[in-house]
UniProtKB/TrEMBL annotation:
Name by which UniProt lists this protein: Leucine-rich repeat receptor-like protein kinase
Signal peptide positions on this chain: none
Entry keyword tRNA processing: no
Alphabetical keyword list: Glycoprotein, Kinase, Leucine-rich repeat, Membrane, Receptor, Repeat, Signal, Transferase, Transmembrane, Transmembrane helix
Source organism (scientific name): Thalictrum thalictroides
Subcellular location: Membrane
PANTHER family according to UniProt: LEUCINE-RICH REPEAT SERINE/THREONINE-PROTEIN KINASE 1, LEUCINE-RICH REPEAT SERINE_THREONINE-PROTEIN KINASE 1
Database matches in Pfam families: LRR_1, LRR_8
InterPro entries in UniProt: Leu-rich_rpt, Leu-rich_rpt_typical-subtyp, LRR_dom_sf, LRRC69/RLP
Membrane-related topology note: Single-pass membrane protein
A single GO molecular function term of this UniProt record: kinase activity
Length: 564
């Protein structure tokens, strides 16, 4: 009767089925509490009620079911404490799954009496207190899943006696102290998840010697120390997630020997030295993330020849040299190499990575033109090439990026006019072209960008007047920056159409006339009209702003009569 669409509650007289041995009702829409009479089903060995809408406290009669071997109650709304009685009558219990409910209180120490327990899962509840040291007596326990609770204290070293453990999930609790060295005795351990706690100290060397280890996830703790060379000998290791700790030292340069690696996430630590070579060559690596460390040297060439790689993060390091050629990165969808000292050109081969959705190469020393081949990246949503030394014109092929929602190429030496082909970028919400050498007038196609929230054109060589069509870009909400150009003329009255605009900067131009139009923009939080040729009274709605917003306009006054 599992995986149907049954609704309603269990019958109150279910206990009449006293000889029933198996009850499978998982994946239905059953609700209500468990009847007290269920305790009369004394022959019951397997009870699976997972993935329903049951609620309330487990009945006391539940303790009478002493023949139970398998109990699955996950993904319901049961609450109260885990019944202690079941622990006293559980000599046959092998599987106890209470995950994703609302159980609270402590893990009963009596759980240790379930000598044949193989799986105990209580993920995503509200359990508190310490992990009972008595769990160490469960020599048949293979899976201990008690993550996503509010457990506190230290990890008991007695867990190291559970020599059958293959998976230990203690993540997302309030555990503290050091990782006990006794965990290194778990010779069958495959998955160790300790992330999102307050653990400190070093990872015991014994853990790095568990040959069966496939996944080690300890991110978001306060762990420290260096990675031992023994890490390269773990032939089954697929996932190492260390980000958000205080690890330091050089990453073992022989790490690339391991051909089973799929995920390396060392982000936000203090690693130094070079990126190890051969991490990608001949591997199944999908995630290579070393951002926010102190790494130096160049990016190994094999990074550009990894067909399985999906995410690449080297941001905020001290990397130098040039970007590698990207030959066969067909699965790469995210790249962040920002805030380094990479120089040389952007390789045209980057256009081969046609699954890329985000590229951030900002704050480097990249030079040369923006390659037209970037127009091949039809899945691209974010492109940030700002704060480099790029020159030349913005290639018209960028207009083929139909999914692009953020384009930032500010603080370079790009020139020419702003290409009208950008009108094709209908998904664009952020357009940042500041501090370049663009010439010509503000383009008139901007109203066609109906999702545009932020427009940054300051610090260029734009001329002419502010077009009245700009007032039709009613989506502009965050920023309109036209500062430090050579704009002339008066503010068009159509600008009052920007009724949602919060920040406006038109400083350091040669604009004339009054500020009457700006007085009608009631959403403005920040305005800078300084160093222009404006005249007349400052609108009342703008008087709350700092005087620095208006400096350099000798014809403005805030004390004369204001007609609006």
């Amino acid at each position: 009767m599992y995986e149907n669409d049954f609704s309603g509650s269990l019958p109150l007289n279910i206990g009449n089925a006293s000889k029933m041995q198996v009850l499978y009702l998982y994946s239905n829409r059953l609700s209500g509490t468990l009847p007290e009479s269920i305790g009369n089903c004394s022959e019951l060995t397997e009870l699976y009620l997972n993935n329903n809408m049951f609620s309330g406290v487990l009945p006391k009669s539940f303790n009478n079911l002493e023949h139970l071997t398998d109990v699955g109650l996950s993904w319901n709304s049961f609450d109260g404490r885990i019944p202690f009685g079941i622990m006293g009558n559980c000599k046959n219990l092998s599987v106890l799954d209470l995950s994703s409910n609302f159980f609270h209180g402590e893990i009963p120490p009596g759980l240790s009496k379930c000598s044949h327990l193989s799986i105990f899962a209580a993920i995503n509840n509200s359990l508190t207190g310490h992990i009972p040291a008595s769990l160490g007596s469960l020599t048949e326990l293979s899976k201990l899943y008690i993550s996503e609770n509010q457990l506190s204290g230290r990890i008991p070293p007695e867990i190291g006696k559970c020599r059958s453990l293959t998976s230990l999930l203690l993540n997302s609790n309030n555990l503290e102290g050091e990782i006990p060295s006794e965990l290194g005795m778990l010779s069958k351990l495959s998955t160790l998840q300790l992330f999102e706690n307050s653990l400190s100290g070093e990872i015991p060397l014994g853990i790095w010697k568990i040959q069966s280890l496939a996944a080690l996830e300890v991110y978001y703790n306060s762990l420290s120390g260096e990675l031992p060379v023994e890490i390269t000998e773990l032939r089954h290791l697929r996932n190492i997630s260390l980000f958000g700790n205080h690890f330091s030292g050089v990453i073992p340069q022989t790490l690339g020997i391991n051909s089973s690696l799929e995920k390396l996430d060392f982000t936000d630590n203090a690693f130094t030295g070079d990126i190890p070579p051969n991490l990608c060559y001949g591997k199944q690596l999908r995630f290579l993330m070393f951002g926010s460390n102190k790494l130096q040297g160049s990016i190994p060439s094999d990074v550009g020849n990894c067909s399985t790689l999906e995410r690449l993060r080297f941001e905020q390091n001290n990397l130098t040299g040039i970007l590698p050629d990207f030959v066969s990165n067909s699965n790469l969808n995210f790249m962040d190499i920002s805030d380094n000292n990479i120089d040389g050109p952007i390789p045209s081969s980057l256009g081969n990575c046609q699954n890329l959705s985000s590229i951030d190469l900002s704050s480097n020393k990249l030079s040369g033109p923006i390659p037209a081949e970037l127009g091949n990246l039809v899945e691209l949503q974010t492109l940030d090439l700002s704060r480099n030394q790029l020159h030349g014109s913005l290639p018209s092929q960028i207009s083929k990026l139909a999914k692009l929602n953020s384009l930032n190429i500010g603080f370079n030496s790009l020139n020419g006019t702003i290409p009208s082909s950008l009108r094709s970028l209908k998904q664009l919400s952020t357009l940042e072209l500041p501090e370049n050498q663009f010439i010509g007038e503000i383009p008139d196609f901007l109203p066609e960008l109906e999702r545009l929230l932020e427009l940054q054109l300051g610090g260029n060589l734009l001329r002419g007047s502010i077009p009245s069509s700009l007032g039709q870009v009613k989506s502009l909400t965050y920023v309109l920056n036209l500062s430090d150009n050579g704009l002339t003329g008066q503010l068009p009255p159509e600008l009052e159409g920007l009724s949602m605009l919060q920040r406006l900067d038109i400083s350091r131009n040669n604009l004339t006339g009054s500020l009457e139009t700006l007085g009608k923009l009631n959403s403005l939080l920040q305005v800078n009209v300084s160093y222009n040729l404006f005249q007349g009274p400052i609108p009342k709605s703008l008087l709350k702003l700092s005087n620095s917003s208006f400096i350099g306009n000798p014809g403005l006054c805030d004390l004369c009569k204001q007609p609006w």
